[in-house]
């Protein structure tokens, strides 16, 4: 259990340490400026005060007077317009968050990796790049211009971060920064600027590649570069979509055709029944008319013949058909004389 907690601690340490090590003294409480230092694993500034205050000169925690991030840490329930202000161009907010200060000139001190604390060079548009801020760079806590040209002497600032593998073991992650101009890098042993390498060339660190991505000692494509699928992928995906549409339409067509046929059979049966029903009613009404017009004492079989003709028995329900219309209605007679149309006899 203890081991598991230790492993968990190592895994989350990089995220938790800045919060845990930052002091929890809130506004107005005492603090000691000599405790302010950089965390050795994360290079984060640590003070006695909490996230929204800084340790002022009178050794109490005072509210921060500026912020360096648009969305600063530690201001969860504060409305956006109540946050400490961002600093205007030409000024910077130090890591403590005390108040805005004017940018430093070349050679003056700056805080860890805070290139934006340094004044931009006059030709900052030319020198600006993704590894510096407006052409200035903070190396070893000193402001430089990133202006050193090919083959000239350069300065290096290697920072070792503690990184952790998924299994929890530590390893050193080194970020190497230098003041070479864009497209160049400062070689660690020669301390001179070299041309950065194209994709596929051998490398020993990210900074040696123009793409800033050295994978397995080879310059790989930039981490932010989007993947460009070849043309055939678009063709295959397009054909797949068309095929899916066609298959759906065809299967719907077959389903619909079957349903339509079934419905047609149902409709035909319905119409046949309706016609048969109508004919039965017509027959009944005709029979009534003809029977009523017969003389009063007409015998039954004569009356039937007048309606159905001589073989009237085939128009009668099966249990009323008799071979001989004069046979009497009795159980014995039924046994003998009552016939099914196809000669099979049925007992009632
Ligand atoms: C300490 O200094 C800060 C900022 O200068 C100020 O806001 C605060 O009132 C001071 N505290 C005392 C107790 O003087
Ligand atoms: C960089 O230069 C641009 C354009 O002049 C400016 O708006 C921006 O504030 C500068 N950044 C810093 C950190 O000075
Ligand atoms: C960093 O600067 C300090 C003093 O400012 C100096 O003693 C140290 O040698 C420098 N380190 C490197 C790697 O340049
Ligand atoms: C780079 O800037 C520094 C500081 O302004 C200057 O001394 C140096 O000559 C410049 N180097 C080049 C190659 O322009």
Structure description:
- By secondary structure, the chain is of the alpha+beta class.
- It has helices spanning 2-21, 124-127, 231-292, 300-308, 331-337, and strands at 37-38, 45-46, 53-55, 61-63, 91-92, 101-102, 136-139, 142-145, 156-164, 170-178, 184-186, 193-195, 214-215, 218-219.
- Helix content is 29%, strand content 14%.
- It has a two-stranded antiparallel sheet.
- The two termini are 90 Å apart.
- It binds 2-acetamido-2-deoxy-beta-D-glucopyranose (4 copies).
- One 2-acetamido-2-deoxy-beta-D-glucopyranose (NAG) binds at residues 56, 58, 60, 62.
What structural keywords apply?
signal, single chain, alpha+beta, disordered N terminus, binds 2-acetamido-2-deoxy-beta-D-glucopyranose, transmembrane, transmembrane helix, 348 residues, 14 strands, two-stranded antiparallel sheet, membrane, 29% helix, elongated
Short description, anyone?
The protein has 348 residues and is an alpha+beta fold.
Output the number of helix runs. Answer: 5
What ligands does this structure carry?
Answer: 2-acetamido-2-deoxy-beta-D-glucopyranose
Q: Roughly what fraction of the amino acids lie in strands?
A: 5-15%
* Parts with pLDDT < 50 across at least 5 consecutive residues: 1-21, 327-341, 343-348
Keywords: Membrane, Signal, Transmembrane, Transmembrane helix
Transmembrane segments: 231-254
Signal peptide: 1-22
């Amino acid at each position: 259990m203890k081991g598991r907690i230790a492993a968990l601690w190592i895994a989350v340490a990089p995220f938790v340490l800045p919060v845990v090590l930052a002091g929890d003294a809130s506004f107005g409480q005492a603090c000691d400026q000599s405790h302010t230092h950089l965390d050795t694993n994360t290079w984060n500034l640590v003070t006695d005060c909490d996230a929204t205050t800084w340790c002022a000169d009178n050794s109490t925690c005072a509210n921060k007077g500026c912020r360096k991030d648009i969305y600063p840490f530690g201001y969860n329930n504060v409305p956006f317009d109540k946050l400490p202000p961002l600093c205007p161009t030409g000024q910077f907010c130090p890591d403590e968050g005390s108040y805005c200060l004017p940018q430093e000139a070349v050679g003056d001190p700056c805080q860890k990796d805070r290139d934006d604390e340094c004044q931009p060079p006059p030709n900052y548009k030319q020198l600006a790049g993704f590894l510096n801020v407006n052409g200035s760079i903070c190396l070893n806590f000193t402001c430089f211009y990133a202006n050193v040209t090919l083959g000239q002497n350069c300065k290096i600032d290697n920072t070792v971060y503690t990184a952790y593998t998924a299994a929890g073991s530590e390893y050193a992650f080194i970020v190497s920064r230098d003041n070479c101009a864009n497209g160049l890098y400062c070689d660690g042993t020669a301390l001179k600027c070299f041309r950065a390498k194209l994709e596929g060339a051998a490398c020993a660190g990210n900074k040696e590649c123009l793409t800033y991505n050295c994978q397995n000692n080879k310059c790989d494509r930039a981490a932010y570069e989007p993947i460009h699928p070849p043309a055939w992928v678009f063709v295959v995906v397009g054909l797949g979509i068309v095929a899916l549409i066609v298959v759906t339409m065809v299967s719907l067509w077959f389903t619909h055709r079957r349903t339509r046929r079934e419905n047609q059979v149902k409709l035909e049966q319905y119409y046949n029944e309706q016609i048969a029903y109508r004919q039965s009613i017509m027959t009944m009404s005709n029979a009534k008319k003809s029977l009523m017009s017969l003389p009063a004492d007409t015998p039954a079989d004569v009356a039937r013949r007048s309606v159905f003709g001589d073989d009237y028995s085939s128009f009668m329900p099966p249990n009323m058909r008799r071979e001989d219309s004069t046979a009497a209605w009795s159980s014995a007679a039924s046994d003998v004389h009552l016939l099914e149309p196809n000669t099979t006899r049925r007992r009632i």
